[in-house]
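Q: What structure does this chain adopt?
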Amino acid sequence: MVMLGTAGCGAVAGDDGRSAAGAATICAHGTYTWSGVRHEERLTGLPDRITYTDGGYQGVIEPVSDTVYRPTVTHPPQGVTPARVIKALGAHLETENPLAGPSETAGQEKTEFFDELGEPRQRYYTWESVDLIEADFTYTCGLNPPVHGHVRTWDTYGGGFLPCSEPSEGIPAKVAAVKLCPAGSPAVTGV
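A:
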């Protein structure tokens, strides 16, 4: 579970340009050991209704709460940006796409949608969600003491648009199905 080896260390310089005695060294290319990796899908948006007009399904997905998700890194190692810590986690998890970086947000988007389907008209449910990832890390580099920190980010921000005749999977999908599908439909019952 160790990623990114190699060490590049440099002493912190004092005002006179010399290395400060006893100062911590900046070591930006250490190794990470990851633990406690957790994945959790969170519902971020739902429409009040989906209507069928002009040959397609349309609606407006509204945020479900005031929560805004932001990637965070607690205790980044000296000389390592939070973005690099998040990138190292993505490499460890072998994610297909980069994980969300420090400047990104999720959870407060209002989305208008229109889907034109070539299938018989029926009831649909839709939602938006974010797949959160949390992990603890220990960073070691050179002779510096290990740094322990925590990362919270996400790998996908998405959702789904499914007919009520199909069972829902995952908590956000089930919440959307209960709100938008008939009570006995497979999306609500899961069968």
